[in-house]
Input
Amino acid sequence: MIYQGKAFKVLALEDGIVELRFDLEGESVNKFNQLAIEDLNAAIEAIKADSSVQGVVLTSGKDGVFIVGADIMEFTSTFKQADEELMNMVLSVNKVFNGLEDLDMPTVAAINGSALGGGFEVCLAADFRVISTKGGVGLPEVKLGIYPGWGGTVRLPRLIGADNAVEWIAGGREQKPAAALKVGAVDAVVAPEKLLESAISLVKSALSGDLDFRARKEEKKAPLKLPMLESLMVFETCMGVVRQQAGPNIPAPVAAVKTIKKHAELPRDEAIEVEAKGFVKLAKTPEADVFVNLFLNDQMLKKKAKGMAKIASKVEKAAVLGAGIMGGGIAYQSAYKGTPILMKDIAQEGLDLGLTEATKLLSKRVARGRMDPAKMGQVLNSIVPTLSYSEFKDVDVVVEAVVENVKVKKAVLADVENHVREDAVLTSNTSTISITELAKDLKRPENFCGMHFFNPVHAMPLVEVIRGEKTSDKTVATVVAYAQKMGKTAIVVNDCPGFLVNRVLFPYFGGFASLVKDGANFHKVDKVMERFGWPMGPAYLLDVVGIDTGFHAEQVMAEGFPDRMTRDWKSAMDVMYEAGRFGQKTGSGFYKYEMDKKGKPKKLVDDSVPALISGVVGEAKEFDDQEIIERMMVPLCMETIRAYEDGIVATPAEADLALLNGIGFPIFRGGALKYIDTMGVDTFVELADKYAHISPLYAPTEKLREMARAGKTFYGV
Ligand code: NAD
Output
């Protein structure tokens, strides 16, 4: 043993070749924290001091994971430090990585699993990289609102070319071994059991002169090799694409391209300084703060789900009742993700429709090369259409998705309860009916909860798991696990009208209704809210959800929260409803729709709408963008606060994740509560007070006022 620390060890292998093994003590994965960086530095010093060492193989002592990256918890807390301190931290890590690169001997990274972020950047500091077929590499920093700051933007373009590097860094995706080999990010892909042997053999080839390891080092330390004109073109093209993909509100990918361009003509050490300066700037942006917060929220949710999984029952076979829009989608998603499912309807046409929909979705995947045709058959075979309960005895979970009618649902649930095992879990996909109410006639209400999917099921990532008064923890845990198995983000909420997401969405529509009543142009409202970051504006969203669905749900919400969700005036949506303009599905609503060549509905301006709604809208008035945003966002945010205060959702993190995954809340704003934190709770209270005369939807709660007075925030920082 040449060196032994708490994170790194240096062990002799053969012929003067040593293994530099990362195996962080007390952790299941390797990550770079301060201790590991210092330890790596000490290990490199020990290698330098031992004249018998001829070459180095960098390995991981963790199974299946190489290095997941920087320790986000520790690392991102440094983002709050003064610029100079942050800069020093970044440069000191770079110094250690440069130390590895500058060793006067061949170095090879033997990547056995995921090498991400800083974990891949350290591999880039090695001369060669060999990866197991089970490995993966990537620089996902943009997902945290930053870009690689430990030499990644410098070394990667010098290794794989500026165009490839931009794609990798701006996209932030983990790359499979074959893709990495193709562009030259790794030098070989081998079976896991051959990894160490191959790495040693690479070192030997370098030592014998078959491979020029010094040329490798020099290539990475020299300016980027690009003829002037070509370089201009590469960056111009990349910039356009990246800007378009990231949108105007996410700065990190564009900043990465600019940085690569800026340091292209510089040698390594100067280039790294340029990278570090840009990194410090990015780390201080509100977007980085939001994305880091999102990462932490995700981690928290995963941890919670892991805890619940301990008491969850296995779900090996499911059933869905109702093969309509939702039932068909649920059957597809369950089967596609590996849980066979019975699909029961009362009508053969219903079953045929459900299967046709599933076949369409699968064919699309196959056509795009995202599914093996053989697998398509398998998935389809695991959706079993049926008109009877005869095969329900071994079903673990049932999702009821029949028509939205309390009597029908109660009858169907009571019926199915007699055909399943006593420990089977029953759920309802209702959007508006109380789960506690639906449970009332059940023999085993503890085995029942809500499982609220969003339309279209295959595309929408959220499932609200709704706990009724009598729902057991085991039932909730089982349904959360099933939702996760279906590839969904599950958020557990308590029962109330609209549950969490619709309860919060309808006040937003309320804000829209009153804006239009006060003379705002709905096209402008849509445009402003889309620029604010929503995937679609409120009028368009109502058309997509369905005006009839919106109309009925609004009534349920008004009954549930009469103090603030009722109104005594007719809205533009009411007019649409009365005119039978139910939105996209009927070809007209706030907009009109025509099928494009691909068979997708295309939104068009409908000139007849202004006259149609003229009776319910006031005199046309020009609202500035900021007022539109405030009048739309305050009711949504206020209702999120109320739902949180009422205990409908347990944490700000879960509330925000539900909005991001359920209704497309602008991701770079982090969710309603993070949005309020970013603007300041006191500023938000002032805003809410400013508009409180419009409707009680805007009025701040007493608790919120207290928070503002005490200088508190939702995320407690
Ligand atoms: P749908 O009308 O498309 O489908 C309902 C299906 O249920 C039909 O195929 C019908 O034949 C079948 N059905 C009726 N009675 C039945 C019974 N006794 N047993 C078995 N099947 C029966 O409706 P949908 O849009 O799929 O909605 C289903 C449920 O999902 C509703 O509760 C709805 O509120 C909820 N939901 C809908 C959406 C949406 O956007 N469509 C979103 C979330 C939740």
Remarks:
- Residues 235 and 261 are 7 Å apart (CA to CA).
